[in-house]
Write a structure and sequence with these properties.
Strand content: 15-25%
Mean pLDDT: 89
Radius of gyration: 14 Å
Number of domains: 1
Oligomer: single chain
Number of helices: 5
Distance between the termini: 25 Å
Strand order of the largest sheet: 1-2
Shape: globular
Order of helices and strands: EEHHHHH
Largest sheet: 2 strands, antiparallel
Number of strands: 2
Helix content: 25-40%
Low-confidence stretches: none
Length: 103
């Protein structure tokens, strides 16, 4: 997770419209990593693909540096942006290419 605006975004980063406060630090950039099968335990893939809020709040602390409380305090637009990244993690590369989701 980065907190500077000068860092260029990569495919696994989301710049938050509404930064999260953690003590004296402001988190404006969240880096996600592709979840492993074990990190998806207890979650329904279909709910993640539908960008289900409760499922995302459970998963975000497992694949980012945000904790569950911070995940639950995300701006809806930021949660949606993270949710779309999560949904793309669940697709095979071939499926992304077929759907023109890869440049």
């Amino acid at each position: 997770m980065k907190t500077t605006d000068a860092t260029p975004l990569n495919d696994n980063q989301v710049e938050l419209d509404t930064p999260i406060k953690r003590g004296d630090t402001e988190i404006a950039l969240v880096t996600l990593r592709k979840p492993t099968s074990g990190e998806l335990r207890g979650l329904h893939l279909s709910e993640l693909l539908q960008i289900d809020v409760a499922s995302l709040i459970k998963l975000i602390p497992r694949i980012t540096d945000l904790n569950e409380y911070e995940a639950s305090r995300l701006d809806p637009a930021d949660l949606f942006a993270i949710g779309t990244k999560v949904a793309s993690f669940l697709l095979q590369k071939r499926m992304k290419t077929d759907a023109s989701l890869v440049a």
